[in-house]
Amino acid sequence: MNESRLEIKLSFITGLREVVLGEISKYQDIHIIREDVNSLYLDFIQDFTLIRHMGSVARAYVVIQDSKYNPLYISNHKSILSNPIEIVLNGNEGRFKSFKITCAGSDSFEVRSIAKYIQETYELTEKEEADMKIHIIKLDEIWEMGIQITPRPLSVRDYKVRNMSGAMDPTIAYAVNSFCELKKAKSYLNIFSGSATLLIEAAQSYPNIEHLIGFDNDKKHLSLAVQNIKKAGLIKKIQLKEENIFDKPNLGTFDAITSDLPFGMSVSKGEDLKRLYKCFIEYCENVLNEEGRLVVYTSEYEILEEIISKSRFDILKTLELKLMTSVNAYLRPKIFVCKLKR
Ligand SMILES: C[S@@+](CC[C@H](N)C(=O)[O-])C[C@H]1O[C@@H](n2cnc3c(N)ncnc32)[C@H](O)[C@@H]1O
C-alpha cells in the first residue's frame, strides 16, 4: 500500500539557499532530490547526526509525499504514520513527550482520530507547544506528511542561555561567517558582538582561528555573551571587551571582521545610525588586513551602502534575506561581503 518513499526536508531562511547548498556539498552522503522556495528535499538517510549539526538549516523533517495522503486517507491508513514517527523517536524517546498536528481542519473527525492513534500508540500527549511536530499539508497537487526530527528547530542552539532582543538568528551568523574565508584566517573580530552569536558560530565551525575577539558597549549584552560562550565551552577561545566604536579601540589587526549592525528601535535607540556606521567603516578600513574580508549584516542597508561607496571598500557580493518578524511583518536585511580596494 505504502509506495511513497521517505525523504528528508531541510528548510531555511529565504535567501540562504546558496549557503545551505555550500554546506551540503561538504557531505558526500547527502543527495538532493529537488528544491522548493525555502526548502530542499534529500534522499532519506538513517543517521541524522550530520543533519542535526547543519549550521545553515532552520528545521529538518522526515517527510513523505503522495497525492493520496490527505487527512482522511491517513486516518484510514494510520500505519503511514508509524514509520516516520518511529524513526524520529528511535533512541530519543525521552526527548519527545508531547505532539502537535498542524493540518487544516485539525478539529475534524479524521484529524482527531489520527491524534487519538498517536496518543494511544506512542503514549505522547497532545499539546500546543509540543516536542513532536507533525504536519499534513497540501503543496500544489501533492500532500505532504512530515515530522520535525528534533523537538526544537535546528536554528535554536544549545549554547543560548536566553534570547537577547536583537540577537541574530544563528543560521544567519553561520552564513555571514561562511563568506569570510575563515579556513585560512588566524584572527577574527566581531564588532557589536551582542550575545556573541557570530563569535560562537565562528569558533565552532573554524577551530583553526587562533584569535577571536568581540566588543560591545553594553554591559548586559557582554554578560549574556559570557554566559553563552561558557555554555558553548569556548571561554578559553573567545575574548570579549567592553568598548565603544566611537573610541576606536586598539585591538590589533584582523583577517576577518564581522558585524551585525545596531539598528532601529531595539538597539541603540536615538543613536545617529549614519554617524555610527561611518565610524564603523572607518575603523574597519584601519584594522582589516589587506586580503581580509569584512562581512556585515544589516536591515539599514541603504545607509551602509552609501557609506561603503565612499570608503576604501569594494562590495564583492550582497545577499538579500527575507525574514518574518514576531509581529508577522517582513524584514529584508542584507549581507555585504567586502574587501579593501588594492
Ligand atoms: C544588533 S546587536 C548585535 C547582536 C548580536 N549579533 C547577537 O547575535 O546577539 C548590536 C549590538 O551593538 C551594540 N552597540 C550599539 N552601539 C554601540 C557602540 N557605539 N559601540 C559598541 N557597541 C555598540 C549593542 O549593545 C548591541 O549589542
UniProtKB/TrEMBL annotation:
Task: Please give the biological process terms from Gene Ontology that the record holds.
Answer: tRNA methylation
Q: Which GO terms describe its molecular function?
A: tRNA (guanine) methyltransferase activity
Which SUPFAM superfamilies does the UniProt entry name for this protein? S-adenosyl-L-methionine-dependent methyltransferases
Q: Which residues form the Ribosomal RNA large subunit methyltransferase K/L-like methyltransferase domain?
A: 157-314
Q: What is this protein called?
A: Ribosomal RNA large subunit methyltransferase K/L-like methyltransferase domain-containing protein
Q: Which organism is it from?
A: Candidatus Zambryskibacteria bacterium RIFOXYC1_FULL_39_10
